[in-house]
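Example record

The entry below shows one chain as it appears in the dataset: sequence first, then structure tokens.
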Amino acid sequence: GDKVDYNVDNTVDWFGGFAQGEYRQDDVSAYGMVGLSNIKYGYTNNFVAGPDGGALTSESDNILGVQIKGGGLAAVNDNVDLYANIGYVSKVPIFDGVIDDRAGVLNADPKNEQFYSFEFGAYWNPDPILSAKLHIYSQQCEDRTFTRSVQLAAGAEVPI
């Protein structure tokens, strides 16, 4: 059939990569990783005319995301290992946080979501039958993307 009420094409142009490395010497190891992503969103509403008379379109700028994590492990003795990790993520917002999928309105200043994490733990293994693990993890999230909109008197829906 025919298209009714909704004929929108959304595009997500994404490019990313990461690198990681590890170092080991005797009873100590460390690792690190870094990742980058570059995302650009596009919107075309085939039912609504844009300023040029063609389909209504919106396109975001490129938005850069980053993630960094590092940590290490140390053997205290033959029975105890301690480890710690820290991390940071700057995540690109989802499509609806950048372009309103109904009205095609572009968010002029989308904010990346921020995540900070810390992890600490210990392994205790005195013999093959008995062992214990302690794991403490904390994550803080900032600038989370929530999409909400209001309906204007003229009928348009606008993100807030």
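Notes for this example: The longest helix spans residues 95-98. The first strand starts at residue 8 and ends at 25.
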